[in-house]
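tl;dr need the bound structure. longer version: we got a ligand (flavin-adenine dinucleotide) that a collaborator sent over and nobodys looked at where it sits. i said id run it. heres the input, straight from their email, havent touched it
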Amino acid sequence: MSEDSLRLSFEFFPPKTDEGRKKLAVVRDTLEEFSPDFFSVTYGAGGSTRDNTKNLVTQFNSLDTPVAPHLSFGGDDEASIKALLSEYQSAGVERIVALRGDMPSGVGGSYQLVYANELVAFIRQHFGDTFELEVAAYPEIHPQAKNYEDDVRYLKGKFDAGADNAITQYFFNPDAYFYFMDQCAKIGIEKPIYPGIMPIINYRNLTRFSDSCGADIPRWLRRRLESFEHDPEALRDFGEEVVTELCETLLEGGAPGLHFYTMNQAEPVANIVTNLGLDEQ
Ligand code: FAD
């Protein structure tokens, strides 16, 4: 984006099939028209899509828009993570989204998750300032957090370890973000926290995903979306309107930019970005 102060980024997940990869190339080209600051590519829990993520990052990296791989320790040891980061460094990657990730289903025993602040510290220790580091933030609080205060404190821990920015889990209630920003400021967090925006594309997927990641769909919105169950086009139109308004409120309230969970689809996000007038900047 030419407007320096407003950051725009688009997140993809790595497709598993050739057809998915072909489709994503078209999606990416469409969204590149908006001159985002970067694309990001998710990393499966437990490193299960390590190669898919790496391959997509390598492929995207030859384009104009920078690409940021997501990364978590998963089941990997320090040597493997270091090797992967070295590959990213050699490929010219300049930004990493550093995460703890989740426990893959069916894995138990001695499997240990590594907290994101430890991954951030590890990257800074071995790679200095090579990468700009993004971390995750939860305005509605991480589902496993002991309490609100601790979760905000752990976010500060990620910044203290060397993170540069945070991107939030998605939410539909802008007050959750503004209140969270106040709480962050109170404990001395001064770094940018970018709202993560989820377009409303499919009601069933959205509720299933929201239940698992702890994102609240307000009752009024849930009931309204239910009424469009047999009319996907009306649901998309309504969703586009609601999410556009959410983004407007966030930007008017001082959000420093937007990070879109694209779900590998161009149109819903492109429409919202256009509605916001960000295509003209
Ligand atoms: P952490 O910040 O480590 O926090 C995890 C939990 O532990 C929280 O409850 C926190 O309160 C607590 N905690 C944090 N630090 C400490 C500490 N030092 N000591 C004790 N407790 C602590 N998942 C994927 O699998 N792949 C992805 O690509 C992916 N991308 C994401 C991108 C964004 C922008 C967001 C918001 C989430 C993403 N996720 C992804 C989901 C994320 O991995 C899960 O939410 C995961 O459960 C937590 O990861 P985290 O980095 O926030 O963990």
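gonna send this back to them w/ a short note. The CA atoms of residues 73 and 114 lie 6 Å apart.
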